[in-house]
Amino acid sequence: MTAPLGRRAGRVTANDGVGAYRVLRVADPEGPEPWPGQFYMLATVKEWGGGEDDRPYLPRAFSYLRWVDGELHFMLEDVGPGTARLAALQPGEEMWLVGPLGRGFELCRPGDSHLLCGGGVGVAPLAALQDKLGDAPALLGFRDEAHAPGAALLRDARVATDDGSVGHHGRVTELLEEELGPDVVVYACGPPPMLEAVRALCAERDVPAQLALESGMACGFGACFGCVVPTKDGYVRVCVDGPVLEAAALESALLPGVGH
Hints:
With 260 residues, the chain is α/β, with parallel strands linked by helices. It contains five helices and 18 strands.
């Protein structure tokens, strides 16, 4: 689970559409098996830049969706120039991989029930965790019908959509509120406002939770301090101290400058 030094090239084996998302599959036979919640810094080997001088983009941080016999799967959405380039990759093209990086989820105590809660591309590390656990229900939130097919990447999922086009009409945290009970441990990943709602709800109910925080990262190694988040013991770096942190340790799941 420790990343080898430097970056390595992986060859894209598939690029599949899943509603509004893409799932990239990348051969990584020389890389170690990652642990759910860890992430990679991704870039393309060719055409990774924009503007008149073709200035390179920064690598993009992505939690892995699955690891299958030396092949990595990543879930992404085209929301800007970097993700647009990744979304356009074709089988046979190469990507730079740095990872696995960061701290992943810690499995709960025997006898506790697992409950997964995710939003948008934040469902990716929960798919990896569900594969490891074997049996864990999932509560997943999406914007609309175009994004809801992302729920098919997990098993036994209840879905909420902001516009009510699929499943529950409302926030995924409304489903979470219904499901919380004794001996439950929550594992969550999604946009910061969603994670803050999960943190606050679990604190109110005295339910343990682990949150995989989403953050833009410039380096992935803790050098730039661009992904800090406040805890009760001061600020920590999401890329090296996380991305998975105990909810009870956080003052807030919102990154500096991110509002509700």
